[in-house]
Amino acid sequence: DVQLVESGGGSVEAGGSLRLSCVVSGYTYSSYCMGWFRQAPGKAREGVAHIDSDGRKNYADSAKGRFTISQDYGKKTLNLQMNSLKPEDTGTYYCAPVVCGGWHNPYNYWGQGTQVTVS
Taking 90 as the threshold, does the pLDDT of residue 31 lie above it? Predict the structure, then answer.
């Protein structure tokens, strides 16, 4: 079974940092591009960052300059370093495999998410 397990969320003050991780199992990690998404209360899920198989990275405008996506193929882990956090970054963060070059997730694989609260 495909499993994506996110961790690293928490409550921080504005300006603080968090590092999220997502451990993947159940499929060949290197065969897919990966992305981070978030969903704020009452809002639709949105893409935050994605990384392609050639290492190219792309970020939502709201994340540029503050967030860094990375991955470790050996550990089948996707990471998101979040610095200079703002209250508007509050939400549940999810990782997912995506079509390379964007945030489209036709596979419908999602983890349980990890909560980030910035006050």
Answer: no
C-alpha–C-alpha distance, residues 37 and 67, integer Å = 12
Query: d(Cα 13, Cα 46) in Å, to the nearest integer?
Result: 22
Per-position DSSP letters for 28-74, written without gaps between them: -GGGSEEEEEEE-TTS--EEEEEE-TTS-EEE-TTTTTTEEEEEETT
Dihedral angle, C-alpha 114, 117, 72, 44, nearest 10 °: 70
- Per residue in 61-119, pLDDT (tens digit) is 999 999 999 999 889 999 999 999 999 999 999 999 999 988 899 899 999 999 999 99
Residue 27 has a pLDDT of 83
> Which residue type is seen at 114?
T
Q: Given a cut of 90, is residue 22 above it in pLDDT?
A: yes
User: Radius of gyration of the chain from Cα atoms?
Assistant: 13
Q: In 3D, which of 47, 43, 44 has the Cα closest to residue 94?
A: 47
In whole angstroms, give the CA distance from residue 71 to residue 73.
6
Tokens at 48, concatenated: 């935050």
